[in-house]
C-alpha cells in the first residue's frame, strides 16, 4: 500500500517537473542557459 502511494507521488512529481520544463514561459531562460557555454569569459549572460 505504501509503495503504491510513493510510486503515485513520484509519478505526479515527474509529470509536474516535465510540465514546468516544457512551459512556454521557461523557454527564454533555457535558451539563455544553453548559450552560456558559448559566451566569453567574464561575460554576464542575462
Automatic annotation (TrEMBL):
Q: What is the lineage of its organism?
A: Bacteria, Pseudomonadati, Pseudomonadota, Gammaproteobacteria, Lysobacterales
Q: What is this protein called?
A: CcoQ/FixQ family Cbb3-type cytochrome c oxidase assembly chaperone
Amino acid at each position: 500500500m505504501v509503495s503504491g502511494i510513493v510510486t503515485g507521488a513520484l509519478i505526479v512529481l515527474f509529470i509536474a517537473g516535465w510540465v514546468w520544463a516544457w512551459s512556454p514561459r521557461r523557454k527564454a531562460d533555457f535558451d539563455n542557459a544553453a548559450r552560456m557555454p558559448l559566451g566569453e569569459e567574464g561575460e554576464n549572460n542575462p
